[in-house]
Amino acid sequence: MKNLLKLVPVLFLSASILVACNKDDDPIIKSEKLTSVSYKPNSMTGKVNVAFKSSEIKLNPTTAKATFTIKKITKDGANFTNPSKGFKIDSKGKVHSETGHKLLKGTYVVTVSAKDKSDNKIIKTATVKITIS
């Protein structure tokens, strides 16, 4: 019985620590914040009605996590409204379009916005130039 009474404070302390911490509270392991994004290469060529896909966006630091959206598109230097069968972006930041897309010949600059998953106030942008011939 004496041994059991000695364990009660230890069990209580352990339970208190487990309850006080949630999965995102680890004081030792911090998630890395997004500092920059880029495309390498940051240009590519495609053809009318033929599917294409850019390289994956590079995150810095590489362990950061982000979500991606297309922020802005220009065509031949002028603002461009993306058609429903136009540019798309996947979860890895690859800008792409499907076969039968409605993009005409020209030079497009797609600006991608990357929002840090652990701190949505951190937003970085990168551009990729896509020439459709």
Question: What is the topological layout?
Answer:
Blueprint: H1 2-20, E1 36-38, E2 43-46, E3 52-53, E4 58-60, E5 66-75, E6 78-79, E7 88-89, E8 95-97, E9 106-116, E10 123-132
Parallel strand pairs: 2-10
Antiparallel strand pairs: 1-4, 3-8, 5-6, 5-9, 7-8, 9-10
Architecture (CATH level 2) name = Sandwich
CATH topology grouping: Immunoglobulin-like
Mean pLDDT: 87
The end-to-end distance, rounded to whole angstroms, is 84 Å
Unreliably modeled segments = none
List the domain count as a whole number. 1
Topology, number of strands = 10
List the secondary-structure elements in sequence, H or E.
Answer: HEEEEEEEEEE
CATH class: Mainly Beta
User: What structural class results from the helix and strand content?
Assistant: mainly beta
- How many helical elements? 1
Q: What best-fitting shape do the alpha-carbon axes yield?
A: elongated
Mind describing the biggest β-sheet?
5 strands, mixed
Strand content: 35-45%
The CATH superfamily appears as Immunoglobulins
Q: What is the helical fraction, as a range of percent?
A: 10-25%
Using the CA coordinates, give the radius of gyration: 24 Å
Q: What order do the strands of the largest sheet run in, or round the barrel if closed? A: 2-10-9-5-6
